[in-house]
């Protein structure tokens, strides 16, 4: 994959603007940083509660200009950043050209800043930089980064809101509850879910996550909470995905397929992590039904969503490409 690195800017200096997320109490914030290249120095920053304003964009660049004798011709920004129109106007006022690049191309440059920030402050997007052990496999590290939506992606709960203005404010509580559940500490998991509920109320996402917690020790209550979740939001994709898991366990593979397909239809296209998960299980359901072509298609779609996925790779290699099934 093409990338930018510091060496590439020795002859063609540039400035780079990128975002790091954090949170103040229950309110998610973004911190826009202006980096000088190739030095890598941070020249200014702006804290944004909602979306970067024109005034903040102007200030960000003007503060950078105050620290440099001259400004470069190029200003780099990740494709899709919501502040593009404001930064383009600010750049033009300084005779700079705004250059849009895929965020993944800039990973090598911003990784040290994200890692340092994540070691000292709460930052969901720093997962995969500071929060994973150094020994963690690079593919697992990449999967962890895909798990966290961008602040301005559609929320995975299918509310229609941007993630920053929906479920992001309870990201910490949800993650802590899920970890506690996996560790068997149900009392701690329920405590974290109570905190999440105190912040956003009894939303579909909260009810869905509570259903996951209760599934470990009270399946009947878990099923009731899942029904309640779908009453609040009939399109909630993870609730349909969980229904698929339950139906598969019951041996009702056709109903499981329908549940997985409903989840896939309602997950935002940007949520590649959960789409990968749903396609993987859809493939398993099709395989259990003896529909090997559809299983192959689902697992290949899972790989398109997350190319580093070892489960889909293994399923395709063992059950499809090895010739064990008739496709």
Task: Provide a descriptive summary of the structure in words.
By secondary structure, the chain is an alpha/beta fold. It has helices at 54-67, 84-93, 107-120, 138-147, 171-182, 186-200, 204-214, 219-232, 237-249, 253-266, 272-288, 292-305, 310-321, and strands at residues 14-24, 27-37, 42-48, 74-78, 97-101. A five-stranded mixed β-sheet has the order 3-2-1-4-5. The longest helix has 17 residues, at 272-288. The two termini are 32 Å apart. 38% of the residues are buried. Residues 130-136 have low confidence and may be disordered.
Please estimate the helix content. 40-55%
**How many strand elements?**
5
Mean pLDDT score, rounded?
91
What structural class is derived from the secondary structure elements? Answer: alpha/beta
- Within the largest sheet, what's the order of strands? 3-2-1-4-5
- Secondary-structure element order, N to C: EEEHEHEHHHHHHHHHHH
Gap between N and C termini, in Å? 32 Å
Percentage of residues in strands: 5-15%
The geometry reads as globular
Helical run tally:
13
Short description:
The chain is of the alpha/beta class. Helices cover 52% and strands 12% of the residues.
What's the arrangement of secondary structure elements?
Elements: E1 14-24, E2 27-37, E3 42-48, H1 54-67, E4 74-78, H2 84-93, E5 97-101, H3 107-120, H4 138-147, H5 171-182, H6 186-200, H7 204-214, H8 219-232, H9 237-249, H10 253-266, H11 272-288, H12 292-305, H13 310-321
Parallel strand pairs: 1-4, 4-5
Antiparallel strand pairs: 1-2, 2-3
Helix pairs in contact: 1-2, 5-6, 5-7, 6-7, 7-8, 8-9, 9-10, 9-11, 10-11, 11-12, 12-13
